[in-house]
Amino acid sequence: MASLKELKLRINSVKSTQKITKAKQMVAAAKLRKAQAAAEAARPYAQRLAQVMGSLASRITVSENSPRLLAGTGKSQVHLLVVANSDRGLCGAFNSNILKAARAKAQALQAEGKTVLFYLIGRKGRAVVRREFPKAVEAEFDTTSVREPGFAEAEAIANELVALYEAGKFDVAHLFYSKFRSALLQEPTTQQIIPVPAPKVAAETSGAVVEYEPDEEEILAALLPRYLRTQLFGALLENAASEQGASMTAMDNATRNAGDLINKLTVQYNRSRQAAITTELIEIIAGAEAL
Fold first, then answer.
1. Which of 19, 56, 81, 193 is the most exposed place for a label (fewest CB within 10 A)?
2. What are phi and psi of 80, to 5 degrees?
3. Cβ contacts of residue 73 below 8 Å, gap of 6+?
4. Which residues contact 42 (CB under 8 A, 6 or more apart)?
C-alpha cells in the first residue's frame, strides 16, 4: 500500500495535470468557434462552384483533347494518397482515424497490384506512414509555421500536386481528411481530387438553357485548377474545425477522468490517514496501560 506521502504527492500531481487539461479544453473551445465558422462559411462557395462545374461537364464529351485534370492520363496504375493531418497531438483519435482510412485504401490498392505513393500534409502521422510504407512517401507539405489554414496553403498544395501530375508521377490522387460534423463527431472522409470527378448536376438546373462565352471546354479548363484549390481549401478548414472539436472533447474527458482519479485517491488517502491515526492511538493506549 502506498504511503500517505506518496498518495499526497500523486494527488497533487493529478491536480496539476487536471489544470492543464482544463486550460487546453478552454483554448480548444475558443478556437473551435472560429474554425467552425470558417468551415461553414466556405461550404456554400464550394457547393455552388461544384454546380457550375457539373453544368459545364455535362455539356461536353470527355476525350483526349479535354483538360488533363478532367480527362486523366488514361491509366489507373499509380495512386497518390494525400493525407491531411495536424501538427499537434492531444486531440483524441483525430489523426489516427484519418491514417486508418488512408492505410486501408493503400492496402486495398496494393492488393489490386497498384502502386501507392503518399503526399503528407502536417507533422502527425509521418512516422507511421514512413514506418509502414518506407519507400512510398513522394512529398511532404510543412504546416508547422501555419497558425490557421488559408487559401495560400491550399493553392501551394494544389500547385505541387498539379506539378507532380503533369510530370507523370501519378495517375489518380485521393484526399484524406476529417469532415466536421460537431464537437463530438468528426467524419474521416476520402475524396478523389485528380482527375477531377465531374460533379453531378442538380435536377432543377440540368434543363436550364445557358449559353457560355467562351465555350464550355475553355471555361472548364480555367475553372478546374480553381476547383481543385477550393476542394483543398475546404478540406483544410474542415480538418482545422475537426481538430479543435476532437481536442476539446479529449481534454474534457481527460479533465473528468482526472477528477475521478483525484476522488479515488482522496478516499484512499483519508482511509490510510484514519488507519494511521487509529494505529497510533492504539500504540499510545497500549503504552499507557504498560505504565
1. 19
2. -105, 125
3. 168, 171, 195
4. 233, 234, 237
Catalytic residue among 11, 42, 57, 91: 91
Number of C-beta neighbours around residue 125 at 10 A: 22
- pLDDT tens by residue, the chain, 291 residues: 568 888 889 899 999 999 999 999 999 999 999 999 999 999 999 888 888 887 777 777 766 677 788 888 888 999 999 999 998 888 889 999 999 999 999 999 999 999 999 999 989 888 899 999 988 999 999 888 888 888 999 999 999 999 999 999 999 999 999 999 988 899 999 999 999 887 665 544 445 566 767 777 788 888 899 999 999 999 999 999 999 999 999 999 999 999 999 999 998 888 888 877 777 666 666 666 565
pTM across the whole model: 0.85
Sheet holding 186-194, edge to edge: 137-141, 115-121, 78-84, 172-180, 186-194
CA–CA dist 129, 101 (Å, integer): 12
